Amino acid sequence: MTPKFAPVSESQITRAIVGEFAKEFESYVETDVIIVGGGPSGLIAGKELASAGVEVLIIERNNYLGGGFWLGGFLMNKLTVRSPAETILEELGVPYKEYNKDKDKVAGLYVADSSHACSKLIAATCDAGAKILNMVALDDVVLHNEKVSGVVVNWSAVSALPKEIACVDPVSLESKLVIDATGHDASVVKKLEERGLLKTKGQGAMWVERSENLVVEHTSEFYPGLIVTGMAVSAAYGLPRMGPTFGAMLMSGKRAAEVVIEKLRV
Ligand code: 48H
Q1: Residue with CA nearest ligand 1 atom 6
Q2: Residue 160 dihedral angles phi and psi, to the nearest 5°
Q3: Considering the entire predicted model, what is its pTM?
Q4: Strand, coil or helix: 67
Q5: β-pairing, 171-180 with 147-155?
Q6: Ligand 1 pocket residue status of 61, Cβ below 6 Å
Q7: Which CATH number fits domain 31-70+116-265: 3.10.560.10, 3.90.550.10, 3.40.50.970, 3.50.50.60?
Q8: What is the pLDDT along the chain (266 residues), one digit of tens a residue?
């Protein structure tokens, strides 16, 4: 049978979008936590925080969420995690299998479909109640008394405009804490470095055995009010990289949420 759609006009659809967006945006102009970057570390941090009842807004410059989690590596649709991070795939309901250990004499290496894993992670983050602003890019930080107290943002499309019509001032969003989850770029940290407020060491060379533990261990408040997670931790602290394996991204995101919750309690 052909469905009979509800009788709704064009203007009503526009008002529904504008009204809901404005209401939600206004409520997030001041919030508990802003996460810049919607890759694996930012998404899972958002999920954990929202699940714990913390108000959280994720800002993502692309129109899609997930960052490097959509592709395992080398444009192939498989991602890996090393034990114990398969427990997070389990929590998210992502099907995975252990890599053929007889052939390579390896244990504790797991493989999953990246599109399946990424979709489950995005859904879990939204289900937990994290709010998302995509196509919005970090422009600057709000700094009060030497503490990061929010972010300055603009529509991503503004940066693609020709210079003569790109005179669009950004807006500010305040928060108790900010998480830099922008991956290799460490974009929030770099805003502080540009002003000589800190010095990053830059990401180290590949060494998977060492890197994952180090990234999780170093997930912390890198500057008052600013917590780093994921590959931003490597860039900030000069830690080795790990290539296309994502356990540390997921575990670092969880650790970042713990750090935030401890700080919000004080
Ligand atoms: C708004 C921004 C801005 C900005 C960036 O790169 P990601 O996937 O980051 P992580 O740290 O969660 O995961 C890293 C992983 O994907 C990876 O690259 C690994 C494991 N590499 C190892 C290796 O050795 O190479 O996601 C970051 C997100 C992206 O979606 C960006 O679009 C977004 O942040 N982003 N959003 N404003 N200025 N900069």
Answers
A1: 183
A2: -90, -5
A3: 0.97
A4: helix
A5: antiparallel
A6: yes
A7: 3.50.50.60
A8: 899 999 999 999 999 999 999 999 999 999 999 999 999 999 999 999 999 999 999 999 999 999 999 998 889 999 999 999 999 999 999 999 999 877 778 889 999 999 999 999 999 999 999 999 999 999 999 999 999 999 999 999 998 888 888 789 999 999 999 999 999 999 999 999 999 999 999 999 999 999 999 999 999 999 999 999 999 999 999 999 999 999 999 999 999 999 999 999 98
Residue nearest ligand 1's atom 33 by CA: 37
| Cα-to-centroid distance, 7 and ligand 1 (Å) | 43
Ligand 1 binding pocket includes 36 (Cβ within 6 Å): yes
Q: What 8-state DSSP symbol labels residue 228?
A: E
- What residue owns the CA closest to ligand 1's atom 34? 37
The response to whether residue 182 sits with its C-beta less than 6 Å from ligand 1 reads yes
Segment 97-104 long-range contacts (CB within 8 Å, at least 24 positions apart): none
Residue 41 Cβ < 6 Å to ligand 1:
yes
**Token code pair at residue 241:** 């990289």
Give, for ligand 1, the residue of 233, 245, 249, 255 to mutate: max count of ligand atoms closer than 8 Å to Cβ.
249
Parse the chain into domains and list their residue ranges: 31-70+116-265
Separation of CA 207 and ligand 1 centre (Å): 19
- Selection from 130, 159, 142 nearest residue 55 by Cα: 130
Helix spans in 200-246 (H): 208-218, 231-237
19 CA from centroid of ligand 1 (Å) = 31
